[in-house]
Amino acid sequence: MAAGVCLLSGLTAAEAQVPAKQPPAAPQAATQVAPQAAPQAVPGFWDPRRRPERPDLSRLTVIRFLTETDYPPFNYTGADGNPAGFNVDLARALCDEIKVTCTVQMRRFETLVDALSSNRGDAIIASMAVSPQLRARVDFTDPYYRVPARFASRKDAVMPEIRPEYLEGKKVGVIAGSAHEAYLKAMFTDAELHGYPNDDALRSALRKGEVDFIFGDAISLAFWINGTDSGDCCAFSGGPFVESRFFGEGIGIAVRKGNDVLRQALNWALFRVWEKGRYTDLWLRYFSVSPF
Questions:
Q1: Do residues 128 and 255 lie in contact, with contact meaning Cβ atoms separated by under 8 Å?
Q2: Number of helices (H) and strands (E), helices first, in the chain?
Q3: How many Cβ atoms sit within 10 Å of the Cβ of residue 115?
Q4: What single DSSP character describes residue 49?
Q5: Is the overall model pTM greater than 0.90, yes or no?
Q6: Which of 1, 66, 131, 161 is at 20 to 30 A from 104, Cα to Cα?
Q7: How wide is the angle at C-alpha 153 spanned by C-alphas 147 and 159, nearest 5°?
Q8: By the 8 A CB rule, do 30 and 71 touch?
Q9: How far apart are CA 210 and CA 191, in angstroms?
Q10: Chain mean position to CA 182
C-alpha cells in the first residue's frame, strides 16, 4: 500500500493535529453511538517491550496542568463548571499514578505556551501537536494519541479497503491547502481532487453526492458521521492512514525546556495508565466509535 496503517501500535508512524484546531463535536456527541464495535478498535501508542524505568518521583509535589477552554470532547467546561474532557481525565489519571496533587487550569489555546514559559503552569495537556517550531520552545512527552487520516463515503458506496488504484477517476473532496490535500496529491495521483475551504463545505459536498469520497482528520469525521449533522448519510471507507512526513509526530504533553524530571515522570505514568487498562477505559468513554 502507498500509506502506512497503524491499528495496534504507534511505533512505525505518527499523526498529529495542527495546533489551530476545530472542535470535532459537542461533548455529548461521544455518547450518541453504539459501543459494540469499539473494543477491538482501541489504538495502542506504547510498545510493551519498551517499559520505561520508574523515575525518582520524590521531587514532585504538585503538577499544575494547563489545558484549553473549548475543544470538546478533549477539553470543555463540565456541567459543574469545572474542567472536563479526555485530556482532563487523563491528567488526573497521571497524577493518581504518580501520587501527586494535580490542578487543572483552563486557558485560551494560543496563551498556553506563554503561560507555561512564565511558570504559570507545569505541563500543557491540550491536544497540542508536536512540531519542530514548538520543540524550540517546550519539551514534549511521548505521544499519547495520534490523529489518523481517513476516507469517508456515502453509506451505499463504502469500500472496506482503499488503495490509490481503487480511486482512479473518483471525485475526492479535501480541505484546500491542507496536509491531507498534499498527501492525496503525492499518493493518490489518479484521483480527481476537489478542494473545499472548510469542513462544512467539504461534508456538504459528500452528503449531496458532489464527490465520491472525502479525506480528512478521522477524529473530526468520526463525530460528524455519528452525529446529527451528517443525517446518517455516510461512513468510513477503508482504514486509517498515518504518515509522519505529512501529518506530524503526534500529540504530546508539553513541559518547560529542560524539565526532564517532570517529562520522565509523565512518560512513566502514561505507560502505566495504558498498561493497567485505564487509558483504554478513557478512550472508550470518549470515542465509542473509533477513528482507527
A1: no
A2: 9, 12
A3: 16
A4: T
A5: no
A6: 131
A7: 90
A8: no
A9: 14
A10: 19
pLDDT in tens, the chain (292 residues): 333 333 333 333 333 333 334 333 333 333 333 333 334 456 778 888 888 989 999 989 999 999 999 998 999 999 999 999 999 999 999 999 999 999 999 999 999 999 999 999 999 999 999 999 999 999 999 999 988 899 999 999 999 999 999 999 999 999 999 999 999 999 999 999 999 999 999 999 999 999 999 999 998 999 899 888 888 999 999 988 988 888 878 999 999 999 999 999 999 999 999 999 999 999 989 886 678 7
Residues 6+ apart with CB under 8 A from 207: 154, 230, 231, 233, 234
Residues shown for the chain: 292
C-alpha cell at 233: 448519510
List, in sequence order, the alpha helices (H) in 99-217. 112-117, 132-135, 179-187, 199-207
Residue holding cell 489518479? 190
- With 0-12 / 13-18 / 19 or more C-beta atoms within 10 angstroms meaning exposed / middle / buried, residue 87 is buried
Nearest to 99 by CA among 64, 52, 141, 62: 62
Of 261, 168, 180, 269, the residue nearest 219 (C-alpha): 180
- Nearest by Cα to 63 from 117, 120, 102, 115: 102
Q: Which of 196, 215, 220 is nearest to 291 (CA)?
A: 220
Phi-psi region of 111 (alpha: psi -120 to 50; beta: other; left: phi over 0): alpha
